[in-house]
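Pipeline run #58 for the internal structure catalog. This entry was flagged by the ingest filter as a single-chain record with no existing model, so it goes straight to prediction. Upstream metadata was stripped on purpose; only the residue string is passed forward. Reviewer on rotation: M.T. Logging verbosity set to normal.
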Amino acid sequence: MNLSRIAVVALGAAGLGLAACHGSGVPSDAQLTQLLHSERATPNDPKAPLDAAAVNCLRAWSGDVELSASLPRRADRRPVNSNAVACGASALGGAGRSISAGAVTPRKCSVVTNGIDTVEFAPNFERRSAMRSQLNAGDDFIWLTAGRVVPAKDYPNLLRAFAQAQTAIPQMQLWIAGEAGAAQDKAIESLVRELKLTQRVRMLGLRRNMPGLLDAADAFVLASAWEGMPLAIGEAMAMEKVVVATDVGGVRELVGAAATLVAPRNPEDLAATMLNVARTSHEGLQSIGRAARQRIIESFSIEARVDDWEALYNSLIKAH
């Protein structure tokens, strides 16, 4: 087995879905340009920000080169005789756009997803009680969100939605677990003050104890403007949390019918959905949470995915 003949792009924290494209050669610049525009937050808008996974995918095809804001540059370094490129995006959606752009043929493209550790991410009542006490949650309804403070996560949308919901139900808190640069942190704190939420929103920064935070929370929310296939949602579902998320990228593919999806960049819609969840009975939340965990166990756990990964690797080895 010659592992150097398999070119794989590192996806980063946002990429859960993989489209493994078994290609020979590389697409033309025109094909790369078409795919590049299809992966923008707003398709065909050359000024819209790129999906990070799309950039990674294009870099895999063209070599690890810098891409301009609108068009990929002519590559001087490209993978030679690469037989597989793993492209992050929304898994099925990313594969479909790669095929449409002419970068690969359908018979040479397989979709495989990473797995979630459902042993590590499993609810624990004692841990929940301890974490809520540690963070002074009291009897408040706790919303948790997780992710770096970057434009893709659209925290202003979430904060405006939470401000509306919290007016109707004052005993709610929003915890934000994610790394932020100085400028981003300052901007979010400014908006929190503007919305008069300083006593209701907690910036937790980068956290390594996500199972504990998820235990302490009552529900999970992700208000992204664009996404790949967010691992944080899968982990929240594995922890039996009710999930509210924007219908972007591969989110729908991940959650199925086990979460509530809303339109992106619509704080009114998001606020109304968050209120509905907060008003749901304890028994109702538990029932939804159990169904969410079951979906992850059946479709996105490590155990459920390992056979697919093994089959993919074996097919590549046998072919070469």
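catalog note: The first strand starts at residue 7 and ends at 8.
catalog note: Residues 282-300 form the longest helix (19 residues).
status: ready for reviewer M.T.
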